[in-house]
Amino acid sequence: MRPPEAFLEKMQALLGAAFGSFLAEYEKPPLRGLRRNALKLSPALDAALRGWEPAEWNEALLFVPEGRRPGLWPEQAAGLYYLQEPSASLPVGALGVRPGMRVLDLCAAPGGKSTQIAEALAGEGILVANEVHAGRARILLENIERQGVANAVVLNESPQRLAAHFGPWFDAVLVDAPCSGEGMFRRDDEAIAQWSERALRGCHERQLEILLEAAKLLRPGGRLVYSTCTFNTLENEGSVEAFLCARPEFSLIGAERAMPHTHRGEGQFYAVFTKQGGEGERRLPALGAAGPDERFSRFAGEALNESPFWRETRPQGDWLYALPGGMPELKGLRVLRAGLQLGRLLPKRFEPAHALALCAKRGIFQQEKVLLPEEALLYLRGEALEAHFLGWGTVTLGGWPLGLAKGAEGRLQNHYPKGLRREGLRACP
Ligand code: SAM
Asked: Do the Cβ atoms of 250 and 291 come closer than 8 Å?
């Protein structure tokens, strides 16, 4: 579908002599990216991806060659990579995330940038990944668990309620705002169909509202990154200027508009701010841990390797979670996940969770079966495999677990979650 004329006129005014190069990009197919998961390094995957070209701005992000379909490979189910539009990986690079930080991703689903932040945290500190739409928040959770992130809180909240709960608690905040998506025009006709001057104004107003809440969540001295996948000045420079006028304690330290003819990707804008004053850093009460659960301790003794990497656990309903250090109280918030889901506390026993198997820590389970590529396809369809061990263990591909299996009566019962099972996958060539 051809982009709207009014959009093209705006782009001509914005780009001047470069407009021709921009327009020429619409004759080309969209670019796709695969970001290797730094939490789950896999030499076997690296070998399969040899020769794929990395993005200049992120060496973990590789351009997917024409005709390759990594969305169908079983290695994706093991969380070895995330399929991300190449330029969408730019804003997190500007957020300055280091291990140990408290980072908020305010508009997080489906989770491309949250999983990237989690990689930069390297298991230390806390990522709060929030998504206001319930259905999208569930997808976000699925992606965070698949990538093996153990130190995340996944919330389904409005920015207003988050600001009221946390106040200035975070070291870094990302606002990857809902926008008119002009950068998606090459691959999404729906974005073209919904484009109008009125829609741009609506997006701009909503962006400012979200930014004003985000401002309350950042501690003094912290960093805020605002990003969109659109090109117009109202939603980019316009939202930045309106925000700076309303919040003089913030300073702009940089901004970039990546476009298909300047960066190989669909396009992204991001602006980076620091906060100088305002209310001092908030201290929050810690989420209380519980003493050891006898059912879990027994299970861990039988099925897990020693020395768990988590410090504290806490039950929530029937489920047991491992808490990352420094976890704050979350009472009153809609919480999808707080830490790593370890498993289910049944009346007389403990049943491990898929998230525990997928966690980015090798060798948690004593027993594992290394799958051949064809066996991985069977497993992800939900079929039983030939027995290799008795009791609980994991099945692995590319050096990392795909999920859980339980050996009994000559078979490995398949415990890959029913909602995730897929037909039509193909082995990575
Ligand atoms: N950061 C995500 C990623 O990298 O995968 C993409 C985020 S997408 C550009 C913007 C998100 O903002 C959407 O998931 C949308 O549901 C959410 N959103 C929509 N309205 C919102 C609002 N008023 N406040 C906060 N988030 C909102």
From this structure: no
Helix (H) or strand (E) holding 230: none
User: Domains of the chain: which residue ranges?
Assistant: 5-30+84-275
**Through-space distance between the first and last CA atoms of the chain, rounded to whole angstroms:** 33
Ligand 1 probe mutation, 87, 107, 144, most atoms within 8 A of CB: 107
Q: Of 269, 95, 79, nearest to 172 (Cα)?
A: 95
pLDDT at 2: 84
Q: Which residues, other chains included, contact 219 with Cβ-Cβ below 8 Å and sequence gap of 6+?
A: 168, 169, 170, 171, 275, 280, 281, 282
Q: Which two tokens stand for residue 113?
A: 């940038």
Q: Which CATH architecture has domain 5-30+84-275?
A: 3-Layer(aba) Sandwich (3.40)
Q: Is 61 exposed, middle or buried, given 0-12, 13-18 or 19+ CB atoms closer than 10 A?
A: buried
Contact between 390 and 407 under an 8 Å Cβ cutoff? The reply is yes
Q: What local confidence, expressed as pLDDT, does residue 26 receive?
A: 86
What are the b/e assignments for 250-282, b being 16+ CB within 10 Å? beeeebbbbbbebbbbbbbbbbbbbbeebeebe
> Best mutation site among 92, 132, 212 for ligand 1, i.e. most ligand atoms within 8 A of its Cβ?
132
Taken in order 70, 85, 156, 130, the sign of the CA dihedral is: positive
Q: Is 131's C-beta closer than 6 angstroms to any atom of ligand 1? A: yes
Residues 6+ apart with CB under 8 A from 212: 243, 246, 247
Q: Which of 229, 245, 359, 428 is catalytic?
A: 229
Report the separation in Å between the CA atom of 82 and the middle of ligand 1, taken as the mean of its atom positions: 18
State the closest ligand 1 atom to the C-alpha of 209, by its place in the atom list counted from 1. 23
Look at residue 194 in the predicted model and tell me its pLDDT: 93
- In degrees and rounded to multiples of 5, residue 45 shows phi and psi of -65, -45
Residues of the chain falling short of pLDDT 70: 307-308
- The ligand 1 atom nearest the CA atom of 110: 5
For residue 175, how far is its CA from the centre of ligand 1 (angstroms)? 8
Cα pseudo-dihedral 160, 162, 167, 171, rounded to 10:
-120
* E-assigned strand segments in 1-57: 33-36, 54-55
Whether the CB of 176 sits within 6 Å of ligand 1: yes
Q: How far is Cα 127 from Cα 106, in angstroms, rounded to an integer? A: 10
What does the DSSP 8-state code read for residue 236?
A: I
- Count of residues for the chain? 429
Separation of 176 CA from ligand 1 center, angstroms? 7
